[in-house]
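Progress against Task 2.4 (sequence-to-structure conversion) is shown through the following example record, which the project officer requested during the mid-term review.
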Amino acid sequence: MLEFEDKFLVVLERELALAASASILRGYGIPSERSADLLEPYIEDDGALLDADGTDETGSGFDGLLRAWRF
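Structure tokens generated for the chain above:
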């Protein structure tokens, strides 16, 4: 879910968004989804190790706008 400054919320279907990421990056000539300093796994304050995409799941994979709201 993305929340924008004007109180507009967008929810993406995770698997479809992940699957489209590589194509979007290529299309805009972006070499990597993260800078080198952000490629390491993220560790939460409670010590939980998360994958680089911020989840505790493995695997990856836009067709996928689920919902958008404006408040």
